[in-house]
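Bug #77: duplicate submission created two jobs. Keeping one. Sequence:
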Amino acid sequence: MSLPSSCRAATLVAAALVASVGYTGSASAAGPAKAPTGRPPGCTGDTISLGVVLSGPAGSHAAARLLAGHDQGHMTATGKTVDLTVSPRPTSYPVTFDIAGRTDRMYRVDVVDAAGRRLATSRSVPAASCAPGTEVPEAPAAALLPLSLIGALALATARKRASSQA
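Kept job's structure:
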């Protein structure tokens, strides 16, 4: 694959979306890139995240695009993108996508240059592999007090009726 001159010196590494279904690849006209280090990628709840390491001409751009579909062979763009501004030194960019409300069964991220040419592609990630978030919803204290009083009164009434029938 031939890259335009504006991206000739760019190196790109897209980290995996999910460590167990990982991908590490590179695209560079200047030579192969090394695998990134840093934050492990993952998918939690309604958020898909990955790390992208870029270097190239200052001010050039790349974009991470979220694709979705019902299987690996039928992916279409979701319209969700994250713009990445490249710097001359290798820089790690955290990229996240909110998939709340989507009913797709598979997701993938493509990283493209400013001309729209694909530089790297992650493996497809099944939506079922995204575990629920770690936040547990709590009932407000204002609702708990009246409910506990009603429960205590119901229990006292039931005991009173049982003892009067005996």
